[in-house]
Amino acid sequence: MAIQYQQENQLFSLNTKRTTYQMKVDTKGFLLHLYYGGKISGNMAYLLTYYDRGFSGNPADAGNDRTYSLDALPQEYPQAGAGDYRSSALVIRNADGSEYCDLRYVSHRIRDGKYGLNGLPAVFAAEREAQTLEIILEDAVSHVQVSLLYGVLEAEDIITRNDVIRNGGDTEFVIKKAASACLDF
How confident is the model at residue 123 (pLDDT cuts 50, 70, 90)? Predict the structure, then answer.
């Protein structure tokens, strides 16, 4: 299997013939990027560092925990207004004018075959040649939903990435910026 999920660690590993791409859902529901490089079989969560960040921006549910900061954690799909001051993959302007989005993990599914992109150029593969991982993130207030799609063609050493943004709520929002990926080095 090119895509593996460990329920007990909420760990996703995408493996090709020579590489591994790894991410996990943390205890607060944020999807964090762990590793992208040569093929591995272990859990790279030990790379996450938690130490006093002073007055760095924190999500409200971190409370007074100064060791938890989105500004220092490698998010898989960072968004503006949630305490991460690095480049965002997603910037949303809500109906009230605020630019805030707090995407948290909702669900995922793994299926055989590669996802398609209607009307867009894409890598294609037969159902037996690829797997797709879809991870759903959602803002609990605005109901902005982002589906992160990963296509893994194991034998060809290819991992593709795409995102789909949906309005799951009743109010309008404006997408000011949407990147298909954001990768910390």
Answer: confident
**Which single residue is written with the structure tokens 């690829």?**
130
Determine the Cα–Cα distance for residues 96 and 172; give it in Å rounded to an integer: 10
Residue corresponding to tokens 């938890």: 68
Query: Which backbone phi and psi does 45 adopt, to 5 degrees?
Result: -65, -20
**pLDDT tens digits, residue range 64-76?**
888 888 878 899 9
Distance CA 81, CA 112 (A): 36
Pairing between β-strand 11-15 and β-strand 19-25 as defined by DSSP bridges: antiparallel
Q: Is 68 exposed, middle or buried (0-12, 13-18, 19+ CB in 10 A)?
A: buried
Query: What is the chain's length?
Result: 185
Backbone angles phi, psi at 87, to 5 degrees: -60, 135
